[in-house]
Amino acid sequence: xxxxxxxxxxxxxxxxxxxxxxxxxxxxxxxxxxxxxxxxxxxxxxxxxxxxxxxxxxxxxxxxxxxxxxxxxxxxxxxxxxxxxxxxxxxxxxxxxxxxxxxxxxxxxxxxxxxxxxxxxxxxxxxxxxxxxxxxxxxxxxxxxxxxxxxxxxxxxxxxxxxxxxxxxxxxxxxxxxxxxxxxxxxxxxxxxxxxxxxxxxxxxxxxxxxxxxxxxxxxxxxxxxxxxxxxxxxx
Length: 236
Known about the structure:
- By secondary structure, the chain is mainly beta.
- The chain is built from one helix and eleven strands; from the N terminus they run αβββββββββββ.
- The chain has one helix at 3-25, and strands at 103-112, 127-128, 133-138, 146-151, 157-161, 174-180, 187-190, 200-201, 203-204, 216-220, 224-228.
- The strands form two sheets. Strands 1, 2, 5, 7, 9, 10 and 11 form a seven-stranded mixed beta sheet that branches. Strands 4-3-6-8 form a four-stranded antiparallel beta sheet, with no helix packed on it.
- The longest helix is centred in the N-terminal third of the chain and has 23 residues, at 3-25.
- The N and C termini lie far apart (199 Å).
- The model has no long low-confidence stretch (mean pLDDT 77).
């Protein structure tokens, strides 16, 4: 081989080597392609497992919270508070007052009916009966039965004062009955007008003038009536 041929060969080798060196020193124009990472293979005999590469979780971008616009508060018109009327609470009485014990008196009037109204409960045409007898009876559970009689005056009025053993606490156990008419009267048959025969219960009297003593309670019964007997002829 001649000297010229040797120089040509060396020149070619130098050019090829220069291109190789340049390719090694310059960065590649494309991203390197890596083979896909396969699932870890299990080794027989209970060997170690290869873990997949772990990557940090991808967090969403953090944005500051959006606050609503702040408006000044709307103030309502100021009025003074309306206060409810203050009244003291009404409490029922814890105990009721005990009624005062009073003495008992009974009053009433007895009439004589005309014969034309025989058997009729009316006082039409009746006149006051003088000398008629009435009786007050009280059956108290604490004391023995009490009986007291009285006669009417010319106005047919009677008044019976009960003893001190009979008070308003036992007045509901008292009744007044007709007993008899005077012998000279034309009407001698007692009637059951206002329970004169069966017994009239005591009713508190209306206020009168002058008022009775504070320690006395006056009751009223009647008015009662006697009527003529059917055996007597009626001339009017």
